[in-house]
Design goal:
single chain, mainly beta, 27-stranded antiparallel β-sheet, six-stranded mixed β-sheet, 41 strands, 4% helix
Length: 748
């Protein structure tokens, strides 16, 4: 994981309503389609259903645009989607997890016409048949079925301007002839991601400040190829291949570091100025193949579904981290420290799933299934610390070598019962049982072999009830228990150097965390809703900022380390009011949410679990209450429905997270779109007011202070042209949920 991305990631680890993590899940059941003919938005059983075929926002939009207009859904970066009150939104198509990486998925959604969609289902608390992480929710896109044989596709080109310019192009095609379906997609592009930082930490006697920029160039190429063949009226066989490659050579971090020490009376004693100049080259490859077999066992919809998959992920990364001081000439070209790092990672995974759904005539559905995953990660990390004297002459070198291999096996099984008792009452109950066996070995020269073993069993129950009081009022309740396993890069005990005394440290001792979710929902007239949510997180996986004094050459420095570990427990409670309505004869479609969130954090840490080093105690036993506002509006500008204006806005009040107090965030986005025959022209302006900038501040009782300001240059504009060709009624292939989907998110 690249250092800039690691540092950026910590800013959003606790932001429930703004940014979101990337996660995959393991599909175990095809979601039953329910045809809606009159109600556009409805609460049904364990999900919200948005009948977009009856909605005025469908015409001329892409799938991604349509999702942004769906009640309870939102995006803050025009790339990722979230469900209100959830950390992530996982995308399903026709009840199956999309077998694509996040970047490919975003482009797929942005290049798929919304006219192909029948409805969108939002599952805020997924059942036991879904293997999801933490408090993740699911978005299921149900495609229309009245489609014929033929070929169709689209081409899309876009250009974006933030701090730097970027461009991207994609080509997608679908082919259907009798029993054979083929779909393919190719995406390519390049961009230069920019960030700026202000980092401050210290005490009254020692203070550090680092100010500078990060420029990260990226070249991407990826796509997928899927074959689906109908063996007979009851069975299908499918083969899917997905690939993504990223190259980031010449990524730079330039930070000016100022260290100030003070006397006992508070007056300035000494100032030390250095420059951190980091150069990084990285590339990664992600390839997966999945074989799927589906057998329909009766006319009611009962079926057997089996998957076998192989996934290989490779990342190669090297960096040159230089700490420079001013030479007699005044320029920063004299070495104080030079750290050369090699941080490769290889992940191999084999996965298999078996799922069976039995439907009965008395509106009872029984689902049973299991999964098996075996994964090995190989991380051969090499760090070389080169030290220099006060004149900049080479003095010594210290090597830190660590060959870390991690083996993991996961066995899972679930059983779910779903029953419709009457037209008003329905319920669902189930449980998932998972067994995890893992072993990590760390080889360090001249040291005994270290072993890190984690074996644990988890029973994860689920319950949901839905009651339609009458035609206008509906109430539902859901409870689920989930766990979050650490990503593979989080377990790799590697140290990422940012400055001479600032770094991040991963941790092979991290264990899985547990989450318990409860949700109570009330809906009125299928347009207004109230959602009450409570989530309890145990052994939260996060990065903790630890500080301590370091004495070198009779001078005291302040070290800041972001330590990856399990850090106490937390609770999140939220209440959200929302509506989904159209006004003025469908010229205005609006989604509006306003909510209150209360966070309770409890955690204490003073030791790096990997190295055993002792730091000053960091305590986060704090609570906060914050207001969240989200609104998405589409205005039709003409009678022919060819011009559309979009106005989106979100505001997130300040709130306490693991790293401290996250200050308020907001963003105003404006878009205008023109549909002309098979062409779509769109201009999107993001963060118009330039207010989506992260600031985190923390003051400890022991006098320690920490401040982070991160500007990711979210303000910018994107112009895109999309052309749809061919028979737009081509029947889509079955979207197959690969057996390795649950593993993919843990490689990133």
């Amino acid at each position: 994981m690249k250092t800039p991305l690691l540092i950026a990631a910590i800013f959003f680890s606790g932001l429930t309503f703004a940014q979101e993590k990337k996660s995959d899940t393991l599909q175990t059941k095809k979601i039953e389609e329910v045809v809606l003919t009159k109600q556009v938005f409805k609460k049904q059983s364990d999900r919200f259903v948005y009948d977009v075929a009856a909605s005025p926002v469908t015409k001329g939009n892409t799938t991604f645009d349509l999702l942004k207009q769906t009640p309870l859904l939102s995006t803050t970066d025009d790339k990722t989607l979230k469900i209100a009150g959830k950390n992530s939104a996982l995308i399903y198509i026709n009840g199956r997890k999309t077998n694509m990486d996040p970047e490919s998925l975003t482009q797929f959604l942005k290049n798929t016409p919304a006219e192909n969609i029948q409805k969108i289902e939002v599952i805020t608390v997924p059942g036991s048949e879904f293997q999801v992480e933490s408090s993740d929710g699911i978005i299921n896109i149900v495609l229309k079925k009245k489609m014929s044989d033929g070929t169709n596709g689209n081409m899309r080109m876009s250009n974006s301007q933030n701090k730097y310019n970027s461009s991207q192009a994609s080509f997608s095609v679908n082919y259907r002839k009798d029993k054979l379906g083929i779909s393919a997609n190719l995406i390519g592009g390049e961009n230069l991601e920019a960030q700026s930082y202000i980092l401050k930490n210290g005490t009254d006697s020692v203070k550090n400040e680092s100010v500078g920029d990060i420029d990260d160039p990226n070249k991407n190429l990826g796509g997928y190829l899927n074959f689906d063949y109908q063996l007979n009226d009851k069975s299908n066989l499918a083969l899917s291949w997905n690939s993504w490659a990223n190259k980031s050579y010449g990524s730079t971090v330039e930070l000016l570091n100022t260290l100030k020490t003070y006397k006992a009376d508070g007056s300035l004693d000494e100032t030390d100025i250095t420059r951190s100049s980091n150069l990084e080259n990285a590339r990664n490859y992600n390839n997966s193949v999945n074989l799927n077999y589906e057998l329909k066992t009766d006319s009611l919809g009962s079926k057997l579904n089996m998957n076998a998959a192989y996934l290989i992920y490779k990342r190669f990364q090297n960096s040159d981290n230089r700490t420079l001081v001013q030479a007699p000439s005044g320029s920063f070209d004299q070495y104080r420290q030079n750290v050369v790092q090699e941080i490769p990672q290889i992940v191999n995974n084999f996965s298999a799933t078996v799922d069976y759904i039995q439907k009965f005539k008395n509106d009872l559905t029984v689902s049973v299934g299991g999964n098996f995953n075996t994964t090995q990660t190989d991380n051969d990390t090499k760090n070389f610390f080169n030290y220099y004297d006060k004149q900049g002459k080479f003095e010594s070198v210290k090597a830190e070598l660590n060959h870390f291999i991690y083996d993991e096996k996961i066995y899972g099984a679930y059983l779910t019962f779903e029953k419709k008792f009457s037209d008003k009452l329905s319920g669902k109950v189930g449980a998932r049982y998972e067994i995890t066996k893992s072993l990590g070995t760390s080889e360090i020269p001249n040291q005994p072999m270290q072993k890190f073993e984690r074996d644990y069993n988890n029973l994860l129950p689920y319950l949901s009830l839905n009651y339609a009081i009458n035609d206008k009022n509906n109430i539902s309740y859901a409870f689920s228990s989930r766990m979050r396993r650490p990503s593979f890069w989080e377990l790799n005990p590697v140290k990422n150097i940012l400055t001479q005394y600032n770094y991040t440290q991963n941790n092979p001792f991290v264990k899985a965390s547990s989450t318990y979710n409860q949700e109570l929902t009330y809906m009125f007239k299928n347009s207004y809703f109230l959602i009450l949510n409570h989530s309890y997180f145990k052994d939260v996986i996060t990065q903790v900022p630890l500080q301590r004094d370091i004495v070198k050459d009779d001078k005291t420095y302040r070290q800041l380390a972001y330590i990856r570990t399990n850090f106490g427990d937390k609770q999140e409670m939220s209440a959200m009011l929302g509506m989904q309505k159209t006004f003025f004869n469908q010229y205005l479609t609006t989604n509006f949410n306003i909510g209150l969130q209360h966070n309770i954090n409890k955690g204490t840490l003073n030791t790096d679990p990997t190295t055993g080093q002792i730091f000053d105690t960091y305590i986060n036993n704090r609570e906060s209450s914050s207001v969240v506002i989200q609104t998405n509006n589409t205005i039709r500008l003409d009678k022919k429905k060819t011009w559309f204006l979009g106005i989106n806005y979100f505001y997130v009040d300040k709130q306490q997270i693991e790293l401290g107090m996250l200050k308020d965030l907001m963003s105003l986005d404006i878009s205008i779109k023109k549909n002309w025959n098979d062409w779509t022209f769109a201009l999107n302006l993001e963060d118009v007011l330039r207010t989506n900038i992260v600031e985190i501040e923390d003051s400890q009782a022991n006098g320690n202070y920490n401040y982070v300001k991160n500007d990711q240059y979210n303000r910018g504009g994107t112009f895109s042209i999309t052309y749809n060709f061919g028979n737009q009624k081509v029947k889509k292939m079955r979207d197959i949920n690969g057996a390795s989907d649950a593993i993919k998110s843990r490689t990133r």
